[in-house]
Amino acid sequence: MNTLATVLLSALPLAAGWAVHVWWLRGCLNTARRDPLTGLRTRDGFTRRATALLKDPRAVVVLADVDKFKQINDTHGHATGDALLKATADRLAHHVGRSGVAGRLGGDEFAAVLIDDHGTAGDLLAVLHGVLARPVDGQNPDVRTTVSLGWVRASDFPADNLSGLLRRADEAMYAAKQARAGMRRAGLGWLFATVTGRRAGRSGARADAPVMGVAA
């Protein structure tokens, strides 16, 4: 018995050290899945959480793109551009809430999945669109921009995975940007014909891709 107790006691430091190591690795992984500028999840972290949320039939997928971001960056400097991205991320995350997830896919492109409890996603996103267009606190009030939004209800396309739904939201967002409409919902038909998931106007898509039934 004494021998067993001695062995167990001697193993405690090893077990404690391993627990600390696992905790440290988990922290590193969580940090790697966060965008250092905005604090939002990166594409990998967003994909993991968003895929889980899509099991809920009330899920809505949103894609957001800052309008004329390059022009703002070139005119007012990268610090102003970074402040705009940070404010956009904070506002998007606040609007999505804890039940959803927001992520930065890269550059000035953001994505979110929210749970539409009351079937009012269109109204909620209209409010979000107005919030995202507000001037950034502490920055030059002359630096104004809008954010184009595209969104899709997951239940409208039950066969689509996250990638397919993001593509549809992307097409809707592009239609909104081209029409200066602010936001668009992806309907039951593609907004733009695509080739291997690339919409017209992006590299990889044919130049003559026709416009098809845009849904309001």
Describe this protein's structure.
46% of the residues lie in helices and 16% in strands. The C terminus is likely disordered. The protein has 216 residues and is of the alpha+beta class. Helix 3 crosses helix 4.
In a few lines, what is going on in this structure?
With 216 residues, this protein is an alpha+beta fold. 46% of the residues lie in helices and 16% in strands.
Please specify the SSE layout and strand pairing:
Elements: H1 2-32, H2 43-53, E1 59-66, H3 69-76, H4 78-96, E2 101-106, E3 109-115, H5 121-132, E4 147-153, H6 162-179, E5 183-185, E6 194-195, E7 198-199
Parallel strand pairs: 4-5
Antiparallel strand pairs: 1-3, 1-4, 2-3, 6-7
- What structural class should be given to the helix and strand makeup? alpha+beta
Strand order of the largest sheet: 2-3-1-4-5
- What general form does the structure show? globular
Mean pLDDT: 80
Could you tell me the radius of gyration in angstroms? 22 Å
The residue ranges in which pLDDT falls below 50 over 5 or more consecutive positions are 18-31, 189-216
- Oligomeric form: single chain
**Biggest sheet overview:** 5 strands, mixed
